[in-house]
Amino acid sequence: MLKTFSIKHGRDFSTELAKARQVAEFAICTHSRTSKDVKHIGLPSAIANQVLRKYGRNRTIKVVRHVQLTVPGQGVRYEQEKKELYISCLKLRLDVSHLPDFEKVNQVEVDKEYAHVTVTVNEPPPHTVERWIGIDLNSTGHIAVVGNPSIGKVQKYGKEAPHIHRKYSKMRRHLYLHGHPRVAKKKIKRKENNKIKDINHKISRAIVDEAAQQGCGIKMEKLSDIRTTAATSKSSRPSLHSWSFSQLQTMIEYKAKLLGLPVAFVDPAFTSQQCSRCGLLGTRNGKDFMCSCGHVDHADANASFNIALRPSLEESDGRSHQDRDWCKGRIDAPQEATS
Ligand SMILES: [Zn+2]
Predict the structure, then answer these.
(1) What's the burial of 305, exposed, middle or buried (CB within 10 Å: 0-12/13-18/19+)?
(2) Average pLDDT, whole number, for the chain?
């Protein structure tokens, strides 16, 4: 598995970055592929080649935005005793003692402040588990509700999300009113995205640690494209649909894999309408769920139990949700303590 770590390098590479920009502009104009053509600029050829490859090949790039100094893996030496990387063409040393064990360095991208080190991390084989936790992702209330039906435990994460959306839409509105529409659009969006990413990192860490502690695998809904389109569609009213659920799922997946915890995806149909105790369809009113069998629960908790109990998409390979018994009632599925 590839993982990228950002390490502050504490050096001034503004000269090299300016040269790389020159090479990139040259590549866009001429589509040159060989570093001989840009020798006069004076960028180390290992880096120049990467820049030429990126900007020369891709004919859709017209403007150079964030240029980086990309060093391929061959240009990076790992000094095991010192736990350091040495990039000879930039005479740069990086302390990597805090990184997990890795097989090899794939590349290092250096910008103004950071060196982004991409390594191949050894992935442990997934454990076999008998129990699963289910993660219900929501655009109202808590971002993630995690349920373990085998012990009846429910945990909620990401309460601060609606607050963040309010905060940033307020900032956007303020800047619009004061005549900075471009700043509002770009800068605030970037800030908000960073904040979302940060929260997603924290939520995914907490969920994966909890799953490891409970000795469970992780089940999540296979996200439909509808949510993805909703996130990109232009809406004057910012909503929580722009929360990056797929980013959160990706983070959960790779953090779990690094610990050897299995991750599975389930069909998302009716996870919030079905009763996790009897399998029939109940009624939902806001965050309250009620079933004719007498089961009453928090709607998201009920959904998370359904996700945990549902067969993964691989197990149920290809059968559509209409065929499955969990629409008509769960007859042969385990009836574990769900209250
Ligand atoms: Zn029921």
Answers:
(1) buried
(2) 86
